[in-house]
């Protein structure tokens, strides 16, 4: 019973996500408005929420350091997008050079804010609030208040195209996506079995074989179902590959590297971390520098999705990213949270938006629902922490 409770507690948001998806599917079917799991809708769900996933991963790094947040990410997205628009569309500059310049610019902006937060110790809220206004203003100046479009196909193919690319051959698209799904399942199976064998050799505690195989079967079923749905539409979005690389890289960094564990140590108790030899200033500086870098990546994805660079781009993106982290289990006090949890939170937000939009729910009521969900997630975190400390 204890293990079952532990598993349920560990996967609370995953279970909640599954319940919400089934609920929306039932409501949409009753309303006669199609299906939440329609192939085209699944593809749109990925494309619409790609920026949330990217920003949520970066925001998690900031939150882990002690509940800090970055309010400037939406404005950085607007500024980097504006620079890309001017370079590629207006000045016809090289696409690869522009991408490099944009990534460097985002990283430098993050480092600028990280310096004031980490070394001068100005509160992150104040620095990033100033950044939110500053970078939005610079974006408006760069674009002169105008929207730049369209972007050349040479650029769009890296962020808004699909694999294998031959849209006319539906059979090829489905075959390729199913093969990719099967390969991913095989790799996941091998990683899980090898990891379990290593733990057993070292004498570590491992989950029961029933739990292991149950998880493997469930995840592989989801992967194959997603592959089938994507293959039934246009194929694998290139941006999904980018998201996969980011999620895997940052999951490994936070869970399996020493600097990644420093983020958790600092969020747990900064003074103790400092006394144990961790350079907390450098850790905090990294978190915000990295946030600037990922904001630039999100900007490159967004301008490709909308095929334009607009001064209003990125509005409220910071709220989506923060909400995704907290809904995904990140603690409001820092030191707790995972990349996978932030991704689940982003998908949860995306499903809420998508499901309510299909049902034709008023945009104002959508904001009410999302606000209640975010508050509930934070309340759950605070109450569970108090309960744990008492017990």
TrEMBL record:
An annotated GO cellular component: plasma membrane
Point out the signal peptide segment: none
User: What residues form the membrane-spanning segments?
Assistant: 12-30, 42-64, 71-89, 95-118, 125-151, 171-191, 212-230, 236-253, 284-306, 326-352
Q: How does it sit in the membrane?
A: Multi-pass membrane protein
The domain of life for this entry's organism is: Bacteria
A GO molecular-function descriptor: transmembrane transporter activity
The residues forming a coiled coil are none
- Specify one Pfam family: BPD_transp_2
Stored CDD domains: TM_PBP1_transp_AraH_like (cd06579)
**This protein's record includes keyword Transmembrane helix:** yes
Q: Which UniProt keywords apply?
A: Cell inner membrane, Cell membrane, Membrane, Sugar transport, Transmembrane, Transmembrane helix, Transport
Q: Where in the cell is it found?
A: Cell membrane
Described function: Part of the binding-protein-dependent transport system for D-xylose. Probably responsible for the translocation of the substrate across the membrane.
The name under which this protein is listed is Xylose transport system permease protein XylH
